[in-house]
Design a protein that fits this description.
Blueprint: H1 2-8, H2 11-35, H3 44-57, H4 73-84, H5 89-99, H6 102-115, H7 117-128, H8 132-137, H9 143-161, H10 167-183, H11 188-200, H12 204-227, H13 238-246, H14 267-280, H15 286-303, H16 305-320, H17 331-337, H18 347-360, H19 367-385, H20 390-393, H21 397-416, H22 421-439, H23 451-463, H24 467-480, H25 485-497, H26 501-514, H27 519-531, H28 535-548, H29 553-565, H30 569-582, H31 589-608
Helix pairs in contact: 2-6, 2-7, 3-4, 4-5, 6-7, 6-9, 6-21, 7-21, 9-10, 9-11, 9-19, 10-11, 10-12, 11-12, 11-19, 13-15, 14-15, 15-16, 16-19, 18-21, 18-22, 23-24, 23-25, 24-25, 25-26, 26-27, 27-28, 27-29, 28-29, 29-30, 29-31, 30-31
Length: about 600
Amino acid sequence: MSDMRRTLSGIPGAAVAAGVVALLYRALYLRFLSESPEFAQPILDGAAHWSWARDALAGAWPPAGEAFFRAPGYVGWLAGLRAVCGGDPAAARTVQLLAGAATPVLTACLAGRLFGRSAAWIAGLGAAVYPVLPFFDGQFLAVSIGVPLFTAALLASADLVEGRGGRVRAGFAGGLWGIAGIVRPPALLPGVLLVVWLVTNRRRRLAAVVALALLLPALAVTLRNASAGDPVFVASQGGLNLYLGNHRLADGMTATFPDHPEAGGYRMMEAAHALAERSVGRTLRSSEVSRHYALRTASEIAADPVRWVRLLGRKALLFCGAREIPNNHDPVLFAEAFPWLRWLPGWGLWAPLALCGAVLLRRRMSASAGFAAAAVGTVLAVSVAFFTCARFRLPAVPILLAFGAGGLAGLPRLWREARARRHLAVGAGVFVLAFATVRSNPGGVQGAPWVGSFVLMADAERARGEPVRALRWLDRALQSDPNYYPAQRARVESLRRMGRSQAALESVEALLAKRPHDAALHLEAGVLHDLSGNPQAALRFMERAASLDPSLDEAVVSRAVVLARSGREEDAAQVLRAFLRARPGSSEAPRARDLLMRVEAEEAGSTRD
C-alpha cells in the first residue's frame, strides 16, 4: 500500500483539477441542453430504462415470472436517482451528469498510476473535456455509470497485477468488476482476465478471492432469475444482440432485425420472442429465446463464413474510426446544436496518440499498463463479436487517454536520450499513419447525421408533446431520403396527433398501396378510422393487423378499445382476458389490465341496473 501511495503522490492535484474542469464543462453543457430540450428527452433504451426504474421502485420490474432481459445494475442505479429526485427526469439527468465528473478524476488517477504525474494532468484534463462523455452522461444509458466503474476497477487491479496487494485489495477489485458486470455483462471479461493473470503468476489464493467477488453480483442476479423460473445468467439479451450484429444482412453497426424490420425500438423484443415461439411451436422462456437466436447466428455464419469474416473486419475498422456511430441519439446531430463540441479533442486524436504512446513506451511498460492494454482488447473483442457503436467502445476511452498522455509526457525524456531519439521517429510515423487511418472513415460511415437520427428526434419531440416540431424533423428526414419508410410512417403518427386525421388517413392509404402486408400500417389505419367515427372499418383494419403480425399486441388491445366504445363490453372483455393469459409480460399488458377493469366495472353496473 505504501508503494502505491508513493506512486500516486502528486496525482491528487491532477485529479482535483480534472474534476473541477469536468464540473464546469458539464455546467455549461446543462445550460446549452436547456436550450435544446429535445436532446434530453429519453428515447429507445433511455426511455425503457426510465420506465423500468419506475417499475422497479414499484416492485414490478421485471414482471413476475420473468428473467431480466437487460442487466439490472443500471436500472437499479436509475431507480435510486428517480426516488431521490421525486421522479423528475431533468433532476435525475443533472445528478447523473455531475456524477459523471468521476470519470475524468479516475482517468487522471489511472494515467498517473501507469505513467506518472505529468500523464495524470494530461489525461485528466483530456477526459474533462472529452466531447461525448457528457453527451452519454446526460442520457439514461448504462454507459454513464459503466465507464467510471470500468475505470475504477482497472485502477483497483493495478497493484494486484504488479504483484502487490492482499486479499482485501483482491476482493475490492473483484467486487468492482462484478458490479460493472451487472451493469453491462461484457465488463466481466477484464475481471476474468485478472483472475487468469494471477493464476499464471502463481497467486492462486488471490485469484480465488477475485473470482469469488467477481461472481457474487452476477450469481445473485442469476439466482433471482432462477427463482422466477428461468436461470439465465444475468440477462437474456445476449442471443438476440448476437443475432442483430451477425445476421446475413448485418452491417456491423446498426441493430436491425431482418425477420421483422418494421418492429422498431423495444417492439423488436416482443416480435423476436413471438417469432421464436412460432418457429419452435411452443412457449419459450427468455433464456430459450436467447439460445434460439444464438443458434440462428451460428447457422447463418456456417452458411457463409467468408461473409462473416469480412463483417468482423468491418466491425474492427468501425471501432477504430473517428465517427461516433449512433445508437439512440446521434452525437453528430447533437454537435449541430452545440458546434463547439466539434473542436474538442475526441477519439480521432486520442486513439492515434494512444497507439503512438504504446509504441514509445513499450520497453518501459509496466505489467499494469499491459493489463490496461489487454482491457482495451476486451472492449474491441466485444464490439467485433456483437456490433460497433460509440457507447460500446466508450469504456476504452480512459485507457486510450492514459496511453496517449503517457506518450506525450515521455517525449522530453526520450528527446534527451540520444539512443531513444530514433524511437521518436517510429512513434511519429505510427501517429501519422494511425491519425490518417482513423480520420479517413475506414468503415465507410456517413459523416453527416443519419436519416434515422431525424426520426428519433421526431420521436423525442412527440414524447414531449410537440407534434409540430416532430413534423419538421420528419420533413428533414424525407428531404434526405424521400423513400425512408420509418420517416413516412412516423409522419402519419405526427399528423394524427396534430388532429389532421384526414391527411394522415390519405398518407396511410398511399403507403398501404405500396406495402399491403404491413401490419403497423393496418393498425394505424384502424386507429384513424376509429377517430373518424367509423368503428366497423377500424375493427376490420385492426383484425387484419393482428392476423398479419400476431406479435403486434397493440392491435389486439386497440381492437378491444373499439369494441368497448361500440357497446360490445363482453366481447372486449373476452379479447382482453385471452390476451393477458397469453401475453402477461407484454408492454401492452398494463393498458390491457386497466381497460379490462373499466370494462368489467361497466358490465357490473349494467347488471345491477
